[in-house]
Design goal:
The structure holds 2 protein chains of 2 kinds. By secondary structure, chain A is α+β, with helices and mostly antiparallel strands. Chain A is built from 7 helices and 25 strands. Chain B is α+β, with helices and mostly antiparallel strands. In chain B, the strands form 5 sheets. Chain B has an 8-stranded mixed sheet, with helices on one face. The chains are: A alpha+beta, B alpha+beta.
Chain lengths: ~375, ~600
């Protein structure tokens, strides 16, 4: 292999690949990145056997071929090179020679034949949407994913195509749930799959960087994303996601509306004296006013009230303040609507009647 | 051939069979005979052993003795002075009662017994060989009884072959005598093995003095006495500091109404008492006397009476745990002096230069490697070897914990952080080395524990119930005890015979797997009963894991202010002497120890 490529282009591609490389993988070659040159492009790929990523950049190819080299090291080298200069890469005697300006590097390689290249599954349902939209959907839901490895199905995000031509993203850790819907404006085959956390994070990064549309493919065992010159594929979590529709309360009789920013600030202050692990706060909702309070085992207390658009009966609900703040943090509007029934039933938070995002939080018994 | 094949065994054979249960090894003979002496009200008991008891076991006491007729009766099976009716069996206060020991022993040895009644002018000597006929002849009067057992197993060579080496058998005898001696501190005990004195405890000793004599100075200096009463059970104990632990359960002694008992429930209870202050695979060292109404203990469970059955096992367990807890509360901030001794021993055994064996020898200058050795030494938790070495050096001050004059823990002023792992602090009379991670872990854990105990446990209901299918036994229990889960912040509903839906979890542990957590809690509740002190034990253990994750790690640089803060927090924290895995959190070297180490002072 012998190519010349713009430093900025190759750095971007290598960085994307670098993200999925596990630092300490038991298979040594998986610490490497696969470089393959043909015609007039260079593809860089990396995988941890769960998630694989492939990035294509333009290159002038003097000699086609491929090699693998330590991802971290290659990234660190490229990062240090002159940003505006071209980089020349050449394989020679089992090494990769890198030249740019007056810099010369020689890095150890491993044969590309042993590298488990990213395999794309054929079939599945493909949909197209704006990269920014998908990134926003993930941003609004991913905080609710669980880290409890014993319940695999909660550690990812549900990607669902429903009968109304919508893409729905759902994440829950068993105590709270986040749901965001987007109308695709096209009829699609319905399907459901749980995408592991790592892939969710990478999909979001790729989408954020992509100004145009992206293509999402949801298959039997794999999810794929094409964004610009990048392709990501990931295995799915082979489990059944809880029926989230059952969890979302649709008939909560009471509705209270508060200022989102104000509530967030108050919670931030009140949390200081709440139990440092459970963050339990009390929300007392009564006509015109909400009183937020907390206390801890050392008898310390905090209390603050804010204006509330509410006319129902006085109700006290205990919460993990962290859960509410997570929701307020991903909302965009000025107001937050709180739909509730009593002190112990699931509470629904949203921004407006037709909001794309819905959040459910289970109260805490304090 | 005769139609009748069932017949009574001849007494000699029956006795040999009984001997298989009672006379396991020489030490069991020692135990049986000494217990007879105790039942006879002896004040002094002398035991002489030759060839680990193969050749001779002699037990000589100054008890009440026996008449010639009683002596002869005693050699018959099920003959006893200690019991006359089945009713009495329910409340036995004496050691023996089965009437099996003497005939069993006599059936496998050559036995001679010399005894006389208190005021009699004539005594009697009785001999019996291998369960043969019993021969009596008059003998001079004496005070008490002397039993000599010669040539053990001479007629049952198969049994003799099962004996271990002399060294092992002798060690077992010594251990047996040590336990008996602690069980009855008021009685004098003396043990000679092949003419060598192995134990000499004067009569009329107090418990603590007897423990010091038998268990040694190291234990005596690193234990806390405790006495409690619980539901009519009196528990007195000498309980080792949590950092003064042992690799197995052999350094736990239990005496129930004066009887030496080795009982799994008691061992488990004592370990439970030490639950969050000890390494999980280490055992506490302790001597514990339990006194209760004899009617509440069934001793007729094990032929050698090593095991007992309690009428109210939960209460006994609670008493043992409360006793251990009382002692730990007292000593929970003190690290065993063995830790300091090991540190000095580690210093003295500098790997770079051969350790000088003479006390006035030139002590090596501690370089980095030695310092590392010094600091890692206590973590290994092997007080045995290193402790012995230190004893030889006589560097350790008996029981000089880092207490200030006010009686509060004083860890002094921090001087430096070493290897980003340890804090070196100077106190009024020495230096203290603190393991920052271990200390921070304990502080975090005690804080979590306080929150757990401080008020009702906050409960976090689940959005969607979590299905849980426990095994049949657990399910059966759970169906009856579902309500009890609420106290721990759990809620569950039955969904079938062996299927439950978990609907809420304790908020403190909301991020942990609900089914795993509940399974462990239920298992513990089933084992220890609902009122178990250990109620929160399972939750505490999970909290412990979390404390470990959240605590200051080794390798983190601490500013002087942070070091200072850590030391002051430690002084405020209960059980600070060990992290929640039982590793010591600090070691102390007294100025005197350092002076000896460097040969400045003898």
């Amino acid at each position: 292999m012998h190519i010349t490529v713009s430093r900025n282009n190759i750095l971007g591609a290598v960085q994307r690949c670098q993200n999925v490389v596990e630092r300490r993988h038991t298979v040594p070659i998986l610490s490497n990145i696969l470089l393959r040159a043909s015609d007039d492009d260079l593809t860089a790929s990396a995988t941890d056997l769960e998630v694989g990523i492939r990035a294509r950049v333009d290159a002038s190819v003097q000699e086609a071929g491929g090699t693998t080299v330590a991802a971290r090291k290659l990234f660190d080298v490229l990062k240090e090179l002159d940003a505006d200069a071209d980089v020349e890469l050449k394989t020679e005697d089992g090494f990769l020679r890198i030249a740019s300006g007056r810099s010369r590097f020689k890095l150890a390689t491993m044969a590309p034949d042993d590298f488990p290249d990213v395999q794309e599954e054929s079939g599945g349902v493909a949909v197209r949407l704006d990269g920014a939209d998908l990134a926003a959907m993930i941003a609004s839901t991913s905080f609710a994913m669980s880290t409890d490895e014993t319940r695999k199905y909660l550690t990812g995000t549900l990607f669902e195509l429903d009968g109304d031509g919508r893409l729905n993203l759902v994440a829950t850790d068993g105590h709270r749930l986040a749901l965001m819907r987007r109308n695709l404006g096209q009829p699609v085959e319905t399907c459901q799959s749980i995408v592991p956390r790592k892939a969710v994070v990478e999909i979001r990064k790729l989408c954020e960087d992509e100004p145009g549309q992206v293509e999402l493919r949801i298959g039997e065992r794999q999810i794929g994303l094409n964004a610009g010159g990048c392709t990501l594929v990931s295995k799915l979590i082979d489990a059944r996601f809880p029926n989230y529709a059952d969890v979302i309360p649709v008939n909560n009789p009471e509705l209270a509306t508060a200022s989102r920013a104000e509530l967030d600030q108050i919670l931030r202050r009140i949390m200081i004296v709440a139990n440092e692990f459970t963050h339990d706060v009390r929300l007392l909702l009564r006509p015109g006013e909400m009183v937020v309070s907390a206390h801890n085992t050392d008898q310390e207390q905090a209390e603050e009230s804010l204006e509330l658009d509410y006319a129902g009966p006085e109700t006290e609900i205990g919460f993990n303040a962290r859960y509410i703040r997570d929701v307020l943090g991903v909302m965009k509007g000025d107001a937050v609507r709180i739909h509730f029934r009593d002190g112990l039933s699931p509470v629904l938070l949203d921004e407006s009647e037709d909001a794309a995002a819905q959040f459910v939080i289970m109260p805490m018994r304090i | 051939m005769s139609q009748h094949v069932v017949h009574l065994l001849p007494p000699a054979v029956a006795n040999q069979i009984a001997a298989g249960e009672v006379v396991e090894r020489p030490a069991s003979i020692v135990k049986e005979l000494v217990e007879n002496s105790l039942d006879a009200g002896a004040r002094r008991i002398v035991v002489r052993i030759e060839q680990a008891g193969r050749r001779l076991i002699e037990v000589d006491d100054d008890g009440c003795g026996m008449s010639a007729r009683d002596a002869e009766m005693a050699m018959r099976r099920h003959a006893t002075s200690k019991l006359s009716s089945a009713e009495e069996l329910a409340a036995i206060a004496s050691h023996g009662f089965r009437g099996e020991a003497l005939p069993s022993i006599a059936s496998v040895s050559r036995l001679t017994m010399h005894t006389a009644l208190g005021e009699a002018t004539e005594g009697v000597e009785l001999t019996q060989e291998g369960g043969g006929p019993c021969r009596l002849r008059p003998a001079p009067p004496r005070r008490g009884t002397r039993v000599r057992v010669r040539d053990l197993f001479f007629n049952t060579p198969a049994r003799a072959r099962f004996l271990r080496t002399d060294r092992t058998e002798e060690a077992v005898i010594v251990e047996t005598m040590r336990a008996l001696a602690m069980a009855s501190p008021s009685v004098g005990f003396r043990l000679e093995c092949d003419g060598r004195k192995r134990l000499d405890a004067p009569p009329g000793q107090a418990r603590e003095a007897r423990v010091r004599l038998v268990m040694g100075r190291e234990f005596a200096d690193n234990q806390r006495p405790a006495s409690i009463e619980y539901h009519g059970i009196q528990a007195h104990g000498c309980l080792g500091l949590p950092t003064c632990h042992h690799r197995n359960a052999e350094r736990m002694f239990f005496f129930v109404n004066g009887r030496v008992v080795r009982d799994r429930q008691l061992i488990a209870a004592l370990r439970a008492g030490y639950r969050d202050v000890l390494f999980h695979d280490r055992f506490p060292q302790a001597v514990l006397w339990l006194e209760m109404d004899p009617a509440l203990v069934d001793v007729n469970v094990h032929p050698a009476k090593r095991e007992v059955r309690f009428r109210h096992p939960q209460e006994v367990r609670a008493a043992v745990i409360a006793c251990a807890r009382a002692a730990i509360a007292e000593g929970g901030q003190t690290v065993s002096s063995t830790v300091g001794e090991q540190a000095v021993a580690a210093l003295a055994r500098n790997p770079a230069t051969p350790a000088p064996r003479s006390r006035a020898g030139t002590s090596p200058r501690p370089d980095a490697a030695t310092l590392r050795a010094l600091f890692t030494a206590p973590a290994g938790g092997t007080p045995d070897a290193a402790g012995l070495e230190a004893t030889e050096w006589e560097v350790a001050e008996p029981d000089a914990p880092a207490w200030g004059e006010s009686g509060r823990l004083d860890l002094g002023a921090p001087l430096a952080q070493i290897h980003r792992c340890y804090i070196l602090a100077q106190t009024a009379d020495g230096v203290v080395l603190v393991d920052q991670h271990a200390a921070a872990e304990r502080i975090a854990y005690e804080r979590l524990k306080r929150q757990l105990a401080g008020r009702g446990i906050a409960s976090q209901p689940l959005l969607a119930p979590e299905r849980w299918q426990p095994d049949a036994r657990t399910s059966a229990w759970l169906h009856e005890h579902l309500d009890e889960l609420a106290r721990f912040g759990f809620a569950a509903e039955p969904k079938g015979e062996e299927c439950f839906a978990i609907t809420a979890v304790p908020a403190l542990l909301a991020g942990e797997p609900p089914a795993e957590l509940l399974a462990e809690l239920v298992e513990s509740l089933m084992r220890h009963g609902a009122e178990a002190e250990g109620a929160g034990r399972v939750l505490e253990r999970w909290l412990g894991n979390r404390a470990c994750k959240g605590a200051i790690k080794s390798g983190r640089a601490l500013s002087p202010a942070e070091q200072e803060a850590l030391l002051r927090q430690m002084e405020e924290t209960p059980n600070i002497a060990q992290c929640n895995h039982g590793r010591p959190t600090y070691a102390r070297l007294s100025l005197a120890a350092l002076e000896r180490l460097f040969g400045r002072k003898e």
